[in-house]
Amino acid sequence: MISDQKLLIFDMDGVVLDSLENLSNCLIESVSKFCISDKVYLEFKEFDISNPGISRFDKVNYFLDLQKDVSDYKRETVYSSILEEFDVLSLQARLKSEIDDAIFYFADLSDSHNLILLTNCDNHQLKIISAQFGLHKVFANKLIGTPPSKDLRMQQIISENKPSKTFSISDSESDAEIARKHELNFVFIERFARDDGEWCIESDLKFRKLEDFRFTFNS
Fold this sequence. Notes:
This protein has nine helices and eight strands. β6, α8 and β7 (185-189) form a beta-alpha-beta unit. α1 packs antiparallel against α2, α1 packs antiparallel against α4 (72-95) and α3 packs across α4. By secondary structure, it is of the alpha/beta class. The relative contact order is 0.19.
């Protein structure tokens, strides 16, 4: 049965938190000690900066694919080491990030809308970040991290909630592709994004700030 409630699914990094640049620096630092050449380092750095919405797991696998002579055993060891270091660095980076206070303007929509935070951050970090910034005031217990992938999480959320209409609010092209795959309404927020959303299509909604999107629910 389809619910009468609308579903708003927010990305965290690049929408709620101004954390993208710091996270990129954290991941680049985490992989740098395993680079076999400057060429690999520069190629990975360009890939990371150009793909802010891709998960840390996919990015580390991309990095290891560049290291063509790495054995399967060493690959698994390096993969785990990079992710462990990134988890430590990224938590501190997120905790030091600026939050867009406009996210708290959405709290009064909770009776008529289902509000969910879906992020590539892991669930342990998410609890700490929520406690520091007070995200639970907006999302209650509906803070969802990864793994599994955002795509799979999105599919599960839609299946469980069966909303009348769903908005995916993000800054990244990869999230836009997931939204279109599941026939959701994609909303691009530019304020903390790494680009101006030139990849958006005609049916997407674009707003300079999160606050501007919030005001559409009053019109």
